[in-house]
Design brief:
Distance between the termini: 13 Å
CATH class of the largest domain: Alpha Beta
Helix content: 25-40%
Number of domains: 2
Radius of gyration: 20 Å
Shape: globular
Number of helices: 13
Number of strands: 11
CATH topology of the largest domain: D-Maltodextrin-Binding Protein, domain 2
CATH architecture of the largest domain: 3-Layer(aba) Sandwich
Strand content: 15-25%
Structural class: alpha/beta
């Protein structure tokens, strides 16, 4: 982790304690810049850094008025494209699809450095490896990249990739647990952790173990027009968010408490889940790259997975026609706003 280095990088706006952790300094004498952050789902540990930073006053300290927009019917990508939010929580696949359709948005930080989703089956069942999924029933969420991803993993393990699809959306998990379906794709850092807390034992087949490209599963995306118009405000916003995530890495118990406190009532049914999920992310190395840095992105990782989506004919223009040439993968992300 580079908490001390990040603190030095914004030394005029921040103070650092003797332990290197960021501490808010008095709010600068400038007009507050409002940043609307669109969530992709209900609050969870993918968002923890923003809530930690807000609870510590880190956004206020750098002149950012953070407005968190709860998830509704419009996706974060749609809100960004319509200039109804400055930034939002997105995913490498969702951002790739949105840019192909004309959305002028860009990833400014990787929240999860690698894939936290995996093929999940009941551990007590007979399915031991991906090729055993041939002929079985998949509980789907309805995303276009699910079946091609599953076929690629199954075929890499020597299977045919032929299975039945039942589109169940969020009911997919219970269908698996109740043996109404044979497999699904849990987000292991949340639904997977929740299943473990419920005493449901799952076996996972991780995509990358079968030659599938790793990808930035969760990213912070922003409206490029806003970045161009207010680059300094964008840097202050991203810098505070990064420090929030780094504070979560340094103190996961405090971070989980902040996430719960900032969202009254959301976790009443399972207050163990945020801490268990954050432990999972930290111990699995999902939040930092190989150098221990949060947020950094590379062209190679963006190209590997987004190229797969393109080859599968999933990357389409605004009229729904598959692109005939790949996107400029370097344009899908930038590290320029990281501290």
């Amino acid at each position: 982790m580079k908490i001390i280095a990040a603190c030095v990088a914004v030394a005029l706006l921040w103070g650092c304690g003797s332990d290197g952790n960021p501490t808010p300094s008095p709010s600068p004498s400038r007009e507050l810049s409002t940043v609307r952050l669109a969530l992709d789902w209900t609050p969870n540990t993918n968002h923890v850094g923003f809530y930690v930073a807000r609870s510590k006053g880190l956004f206020d300290a750098v002149g950012i008025d953070l407005e968190i927009l709860p998830y509704a019917t419009s996706t974060p990508e749609a809100l960004l494209a319509a200039h109804q939010a400055e930034c939002g929580i997105s995913f490498q696949d969702s951002l790739t699809f949105a840019v192909a359709k004309g959305a002028d948005i860009v990833s400014v930080a990787a929240i999860l450095q690698r894939t936290a989703s995996a093929i999940g089956v009941l551990a007590e069942g007979p399915i031991q490896r991906p090729r055993d999924l041939d002929g079985k029933t998949y509980a789907s969420f309805g995303y276009p990249n699910e079946v091609p991803t599953l076929k690629a993993v199954i075929e890499a393990d020597g299977g045919t990739g032929d299975f039945t699809v039942a589109t169940l959306d969020s009911a997919a998990y219970e269908a698996l647990y109740n043996k109404k379906a044979d497999f699904t794709i849990p987000f292991t850092a949340w639904e997977g952790v929740e299943a473990d807390l419920r005493g449901i034992d799952l076996r996972y087949f991780r995509f990358a173990d079968y030659g599938f490209p790793e990808f930035y599963q969760v990213v912070l995306a922003c409206d490029r027009a806003w970045l161009d118009r207010e680059p300094e405000a964008a840097r202050r916003f991203v810098g505070a968010a990064v420090l929030g995530f780094e504070a979560a890495l340094a103190d996961p118990v405090g971070a989980a408490d902040a996430l719960i406190a900032e969202n009254p009532g959301v976790f009443d049914a399972n207050k163990e889940l945020p801490k268990a999920s954050l432990d999972f992310l930290i111990e699995g190395g999902y939040l930092v790259d190989g150098q221990g840095e949060f947020g950094r992105q590379t062209r190679d990782r963006w190209q590997a997975y987004s190229e797969f989506l393109y080859r599968e004919g999933l990357v389409a223009d605004a009229d729904g026609k598959p692109l005939t040439a790949p996107l400029d993968y370097a344009s899908l992300f930038t590290n320029d706003f990281l501290p």
